[in-house]
């Protein structure tokens, strides 16, 4: 009798938690594929207009790759750098330009600078997740990433 009542109560609790978890997940904003593509397209349009060779990586709020684009005739290494910028920015969530202040305070490396996988130069910007851009100068990467963010600002506030 006690065992049956205990199992029934446990099952009810699990179902209740599952419903609460599902409700919380439904309320949390997510980065849709449509928004990620729109962001990347705006970034790539700016890069093309400025003749900047770019890689664009967009991560969701869990740090998983949501969308990636590479312009024709770009070098290979910026692919990894763009992804690392997005991962770094999604993980903190501040821009990689701001993170450089933590890693190199007053120009000297801090312990933060030795954390594997962090990127300390401009081009990673947080959203619901993050965008990482690489292929040109750090300043141009940052401008391009911001163009992507600006293109979806209205979509992200919904």
Describe, in plain words, how this protein is organized in 3D:
The chain is α+β, with helices and mostly antiparallel strands and 158 residues long. The chain has two domains: 28 residues; 124 residues, Haem-degrading domain (Beta-Lactamase), CATH 3.30.450.150. The chain is built from six helices and four strands, in the order ααββααββαα. Helix 2 crosses helix 5.
A few lines on this structure:
With 158 residues, the protein is α+β, with helices and mostly antiparallel strands. The chain folds into two domains: 1-28; 33-156, Beta-Lactamase. Helix content is 54%, strand content 13%.
Q: Treating each run of at least 4 consecutive H or I residues as one helix, how many helices?
A: 6
- Which secondary-structure class do the elements indicate? alpha+beta
Tell me the strand percentage band: 5-15%
Oligomer: single chain
Q: How many strand units? A: 4
Strand order of the largest sheet: 2-1-4-3
Low-confidence stretches: 9-21
Provide the CATH topology of the largest domain. Beta-Lactamase
Question: How many separate structural domains?
Answer: 2
CATH hierarchy class name of the largest domain: Alpha Beta
Written as H for each helix and E for each strand, in order along the chain, the element string is HHEEHHEEHH
Look at the structure and name the CATH superfamily of the largest domain.
Answer: Haem-degrading domain
Overall geometry: globular
- Major beta sheet, specifics? 4 strands, antiparallel
Average pLDDT value? 84
């Amino acid at each position: 009798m006690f065992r049956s009542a205990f199992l029934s109560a446990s099952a009810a609790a699990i179902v209740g938690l599952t419903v609460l978890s599902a409700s919380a997940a439904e309320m949390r904003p997510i980065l849709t594929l449509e928004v990620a593509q729109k962001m990347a397209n705006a970034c790539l349009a700016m890069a093309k207009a400025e003749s900047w060779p770019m890689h664009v990586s967009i991560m969701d709020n869990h740090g998983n790759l949501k969308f990636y684009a590479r312009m024709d005739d770009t070098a290979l290494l910026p692919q990894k750098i763009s992804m690392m910028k997005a991962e770094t920015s999604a993980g903190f969530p501040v821009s990689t330009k701001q993170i450089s202040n933590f890693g190199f305070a007053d120009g000297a490396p801090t312990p933060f600078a030795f954390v594997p996988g962090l990127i300390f130069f401009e081009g990673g910007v947080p959203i619901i997740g993050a965008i990482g851009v690489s292929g040109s100068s750090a300043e141009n990467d940052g401008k391009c990433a911001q163009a992507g963010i600006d293109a979806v600002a209205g979509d992200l506030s919904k």
